Amino acid sequence: MKIAVMGAGAVGCYFGGMLARAGHPTVLIGRRAHVDAFRAGGLHFEGLKFDEHVPVEASTEPEAVRGAQLVLFCVKSTDTEKAAAQIAPHLAADALVVNLQNGVDNTERIQSRVTCPVIPAVVYVATEMKGPGHLKHHGRGEDRTEKRTASCLVQSRNCGIAAPGEGALEPRVTPRAASGAGLQANPARGAERLCL
How does pLDDT run across 71-88, given as a tens digit for each residue? Predict the structure, then answer.
């Protein structure tokens, strides 16, 4: 399954890097300095239990989401509508967008610009970009392996989550995996959210 990360900053690189380490073809879409570093030597992922360069594809162009079945949406909240509109014409018909942003209404703002399903996620990792192409993981989520993280995200893609109100996945609380990741009901909205 091809993965695209729209907004390859600290959060996007953490989850994109975990997916790439698990063997998923992953493209990181971000700023020129990071993209140049990714292309030259991969994502420098300084984790709590490893420090390595992870091979990834990289682009500064939103159309790099083309062909991705799972799109992690990680741009700053102020760029939400613009970035969603930029990727919209390039999204596959069967794509799923997972919103990893801070903010209360960003999922709805993304959904207003794209036709594929968008689900919100709650992110529990402390990360920073130490320099171009260099991700530092400070904590939270350290009990996750790349395979568990990837499994949770890929499961979100494969379980048939539909746009709110379409009812493909009944709102319910699903057991959280030992990794601390899983799907949970959002009672206020009656829709699912991904807890990572």
Answer: 999 999 999 999 999 999
